[in-house]
Amino acid sequence: MNLPVQLVSTDFDGTLFAEFENPPVPEALQEQLAWLQRQGATWVINTGRDLSSLMESIARARLTVRPDYVVTVEREIYRHHEHRYEAVGEWNDRCTQEHAVLFDEVRAALAEVVAWVDQNFEADVYTDVYSPFCLIARNNPDADAIQEYFGAFCRRFPRLAFVRNDVYARLSHVAYNKGTALAEICRRVGVRAEHVLAAGDHLNDLPMLSREFARWLVAPSNAVPQVKARVLEQEGYVSHQHCGHGVAKGLELLLRGLR
User: Fold this and answer.
1) Which end of the chain is more exposed for a tag (fewer CB within 10 A), N or C?
2) For residue 149, what are the contacts with CB-CB under 8 A and spacing of at least 6?
3) pLDDT in tens, 136-187
4) CB neighbourhood size of 245 (10 A)
């Protein structure tokens, strides 16, 4: 394959997909991704959603193209095979095991964090199968303050990361994020970072929006300031168009003259 871009990694909500637009994923972007796949390129959806939620939204969006891989909850990898998505067992099993060990280590200490959040904020805190601490803050300033508090907490547990998207957050192992999952997929398909494009709009996309993992970086106009700054400082492209339209424009600029 002689294309400069051989793998495209896109976040889902706010990057590829716009919930209240029709269609939620622009037809131009779907056509670009389909063309790339026909040339042998790989498309990855790299999201914080779990697999069932992602599959439901893909079905509702009536996509004409399917990703070759999906990364869910920022860390688990699934490969498209015969009309379904199969877990990449070696990676996912190791990911699950290392998270279980880490979460057992921090669980008792989290009680003080939960107490502090309950005392100072009107936020929803709960546990799920992916994290012993999940957060829905009332607003972004509250989420900022809680994230700052967690910075000190994570220094006590260096393998622990606070993963945030808007007012939502969960905990994760530092070795497993959108960037390292992208690197693992690249390893499996034999694509180097110099042939990868990554696109994202929010804080949990920052790990993959790095020249370590992708040569080309794209952010739509609705990306948060931290994402725009990260992309621009690495000579990436920040579009004046939102969501999938912005990603389509970034791909158009890259692919111009190739077809």
Assistant:
1) C
2) 113, 116
3) 999 999 999 999 999 999 999 999 999 999 999 999 999 999 999 999 999 9
4) 19
